[in-house]
Design a protein that fits this description.
The protein has a single domain, classed as Creatine Amidinohydrolase. The protein is built from four helices and 15 strands. Strands 8-7-9-14-15 form a five-stranded antiparallel beta sheet. Strands 1, 2, 4 and 5 form a four-stranded antiparallel beta sheet that branches. Helix 3 runs antiparallel to helix 4. The longest helix has 21 residues.
């Protein structure tokens, strides 16, 4: 079932969205060679709780951490730990969720650690731009699949592939709600977008082929060819004035 949000609901979601935005902004100074990923997770949890919110991911399906931290060939759902040390030339995706006043915010970015190769930088740039293309299609009257079509066609036009097994989602009082929001597909299909729909759009774009697999920890998803992947995500409200990014920090 799809739950459409009122203007008041959306404003509550904007507050949660600002917390996840500000959490990732706070962490930027810590994303450098030599820092272990558990440190980033501890800082994120402390920041979220200090703002009277609760980490959305911790305990969700038994996930053990506040952040999903995924390096290089890890696509999503990487588990923070002391042994994973950021190295110069890595790219690392931080996915963060926070629950406040009964509503969730969900936001992800991929960062360069130190000096990254031009190839990795371009992958991040294209993935971020593919998200922007998807957001542009999140308007009243469009079909849901128009979002994924925009993401896919741009990413593939730049020589990359889009993960199929993982998709975006509706979001609100639950972290994951209907509808699913694929990052691929044909235009003009699926539900018609209406005012009050709030969704998380989150392209996962691979430098190599689209195939992925899950590691033995049951969470971390990696590219099958072990080439790098990037991930960007925003929580978006569909309004009469166009797409409203609730995780922009505004």
């Amino acid at each position: 079932m799809i739950y459409y949000k009122s203007a008041e609901n959306i404003e509550l979601m904007r507050i949660a969205g600002k917390i996840v935005h500000d959490t990732l902004c706070m962490l930027e100074q810590w994303i450098k060679p030599g820092v272990n990923t558990l440190k980033l997770d501890e800082l994120a949890e402390e920041y979220i709780r200090s703002h009277d919110a609760v980490p959305s991911f911790k305990g969700y399906g038994d996930f053990p951490a506040t952040l999903c931290i995924s390096r290089n060939e890890e696509v999503v759902h990487g588990i923070p730990n002391k042994k994973t040390i950021l190295c110069d030339g890595d790219i690392v995706s931080l996915d963060c969720g926070a629950l406040l006043n009964g509503y969730h915010g969900d936001h992800a970015r991929t960062y360069a650690v130190g000096n990254v190769s031009p190839e990795k930088q371009r992958l991040m740039d294209v993935t971020k731009k593919s998200l922007a293309h998807g957001i542009e299609k999140a308007v009243i009257g469009n079909h849901l699949s128009d979002i994924g079509y925009a993401v896919q066609t741009y990413a593939e036009s730049q020589g990359y592939s889009v993960v199929r097994e993982l998709v975006g989602h509706g979001i609100g009082q639950r972290l994951h709600e209907d509808p699913q929001v694929p990052n691929y597909g044909k235009a003009g299909r699926g539900i018609i977008l209406k005012e009050g729909l709030v969704i998380a759009i989150e392209p996962m774009v691979n430098m190599g082929k689209a195939g992925v697999r899950t590691l033995s920890d049951g969470w971390t998803i990696v590219t099958r060819d072990r080439k790098p992947s990037a991930h960007f995500e925003h929580t978006i409200a569909i309004t009469k004035d166009g797409p409203n990014i609730l995780t922009s920090g505004k």
